[in-house]
Prior knowledge:
single chain, Rossmann fold, 9-stranded mixed beta sheet
Amino acid sequence: MMVVFASSEIYPFAKTGGLADVAGALSKKLADYGIKVFAFMPMYKRVDSEKYELRKIEKSITVSLGGKSYIFEIYKKMDGVSYFFLKNDELFGRDYLYGTPEGDYPDNDIRFGAFCYGVMEFIKSENLRPDIIHSNDWQTSLLPVLTYHKYGMHDVKTVLTIHNLAYQGVFDKFAVERLGLDWEIFHMEALEFYDRVNLLKGGIVFSSAVTTVSPTYAKEITTPEYGHGLEGVLRKYKGKLYGIINGIDYRVWDPETDKCIYTNYCVFNFERKSDNKRSFLREIGLSGDNRPLFIFIGRFAKQKGIDLIMDSVSELSKKDANFIILGSGDRQYNDFFSSLIGNYRNIYVKVGYDEPLSRKMYASGDFLLMPSVFEPCGLNQMIAMRYGTLVVARATGGLKDTVKDIMEPEGYGILFEQFSKDRFLNAVDRAVRLYYDQLERFKDLQKTVMTLDFSLDSQTSKYIKLYEALKYSKEY
Ligand code: ADP
Ligand code: GLC
């Protein structure tokens, strides 16, 4: 079985969020399971080709779009997976992947459109005969459209994974021409969306199968509350829509071997976890290692429920608990959280993207806050639990599928339903009480979450079963 796997970010080469984690971990696991994987991503400025020993190959690919030619140089790395990086500095030699804190790059249609053509041209020129082309999110969802509509490769099956329906790649209608497509696919049943071009919609319509990253989210996105305008299309294609929960790479996220944390530990000596909290609080200048430590790590975007935290700062500052917040994103959130720095005895904030710091936080935390408005899957909660940190989350999407409230038999986390400050603060209070009033139970729960299995093993076989079913099916 040969799979071309395309993603706009792949860990460890470039990452802004969970897409990179999953693309990195899944492509590797597929290769471990004997699938021949060719993984493609753009060569951004921040990809460190020396560190990862990427080698430039002889070949280059030319893509002509809108009367302009884009030449891609190709870098390669063989590591179980065959990785290919498409390099064109005009398109990808920029400071950010998708846009600055002020907004998206205006030519994202051309950037990712040209990338998708580049992948198709590479497949063609190398005469690769993939069984499956697997794309991820809107940035690569032009691939299934091109596979059938432009390249006529009807014997290839296509899978699109939706990691987040909130981002759809919507552009003015003349993107049809800019992307070298025919107007015949600009209609309601294909790429058209309120007189604009919607690339994710095109991917949904053209793909042989669509997956999303948790069973609950797969149901949610067929409703107006979560469908971001695509609920009708998703309902129409329900028969080819599957929810497969993500997992994390247990080699990448492991408190026993993590080099960024103060003291390594595992479930058998998990008391050592508290050394991390002690050292970390000392390092950042917060006192109270006998108090519960709440952490938040994530993109500062509405999705993450960051407004609930903003609105609750005054209440949180009065709790007998510490809070550490790490994130970056939309300008207004960055500004708000920056303004908190140094103003509260029990709140520490870092605005930015900082993986080593995030690892210290996972290792030191008692509770992870994840009050998301919606959450397709969420990896933070899985990583946190692997590090023995309990999860306080809103019961939505993948959080619902991975966290069970302690009020339920064998529950091991704290969930709240309604998206309101009241319910959020109530959940925080339940956590604080658990910590102070039932310390033994709290510690047992820490051990419990460390032994839950959030690895990608069983999930990978679900993707392989899907690939196999598609490969042998007559339809496309
Ligand atoms: P999303 O993909 O929606 O951002 P996920 O929970 O799926 O959310 O994945 C987030 C990933 O990004 C996790 O690996 C998390 O640790 C990481 N992450 C998010 N924000 C930061 C940050 N500011 N610094 C370091 N890591 C971060
Ligand atoms: C998206 C979602 C997140 C999910 C990740 C990986 O960015 O917001 O919930 O875990 O993709 O699939």
